[in-house]
Amino acid sequence: MVNFCAIYRCGSRGDRDKKSFFRLPAVITGQCEKTLELSQKRRAKWLANVSRSIKTSNLPYVRICSDHFITGKPSTLFDCTNPDWAPTINLGHDKVTEASAARDSKRYTRTLGREEKKKSFDAASALLQLQIPYDEDETGSTNTVHEIATEIPTQTDLKAAAIAAMQTELQRLLTENKNLKQQLSSEKMKFDLNFFNDDDDEKVKYYTGLPDFCTLKILYQYVEPYMPHSRASVLTKFQQLSLCLLKLRLNLSHMDIGQRFGINKSSASRLFLCMIDVLHARLQPLIHWPEREQLRETMPMSFRVNFGTKVAIIIDCFEVFLERPSNLSARALTWSSYKHNNTVKFLIGITPQGSISYLSKGWGGRTSDKHVTEQCGILSQLNPGDVVLADRGFDIADSVGMMGAELYIPAFTRGKKTTKW
After folding, report:
1. CB atoms within 10 A of CB 10
2. What percent of the chain has pLDDT over 90?
3. Which of 55, 172, 263, 339 is deepest in the core (most CB within 10 A)?
4. Where would I find the beta strands (DSSP E) of 34-92?
């Protein structure tokens, strides 16, 4: 429905003019008597200023546009001295003149000025009271604040020395407030270099998963030149790395991480995703397939005793949980009957020395370990005579054998020997 202004000779329309339209103020009956009295008085004032004969049934549809208020909108109910308590300008009649509206506006401005001066004087008096020491009488009792306050000079008695003292006290309080805010901010934004640099390797391992502070510092120096950062960034580069490692290690929610670092949830999510990209770009080249001679020269003794010196890789699959996809096909492809959840599956391979030598791309959780192994490309890395270790779920003996390699599945049951395929 199109809104029309009810003021005589005002042609404002809601569908044509970019103006605000206001209803007649309602009579509030569910609160105190003062509210009821003011709301009735205000509604009557609006109708008197409109000065038109309007049927009672049409009152709910009456609208007044912003052209008839000095500030462009009506004031609040209890601000009854405000000239915008009711429409006062451009009313189309002489009952409320422009001169009277201007006079009311000036009177209201003077009233606000007096109130501001009173508030300033009260604040100055309160600061002066803080500087007056408590006097002790002969009996050792301390005078009350009320007794001291009676001795404070009035507004006309304030001297230059008292004003200077108040200014000094005000500056001291402002400085103290600033220092407390900085202290609170520094307490919120932890996980910087000073937080970890205390020779507490257990703390580093708990929060980041890295073995010690030296490894954490080397990782930071390796990725720091490639981390985006601007003057508007709230966190330092090291804190951004700590945020990402904290999320990967403890799987905290973005809300929790935001509270720990003093940022909001969306910023925590954005920084985490950004750091994941940086870490992938910098650390992915470190995953490489070592030469066979290097593996044989550094083969651990436990492997030499049980499997010889030909073990090239130890493989397994791991799964990462996903949010439930809305697409039905994606939901079916990512459903894992083992985890009973929607997941992404990866094949990972490590050397006998413990370093990661292979990591596949992601596959749906529904994909079998055998299919991932045969299709991800890891078999093309094998040489004739290599030995591959895997658990019982990997039925890939034929596929490995086609590359001239052997598959060993260690028996985890006590008393059984290693199974060779």
Report:
1. 16
2. 37
3. 263
4. 63-65
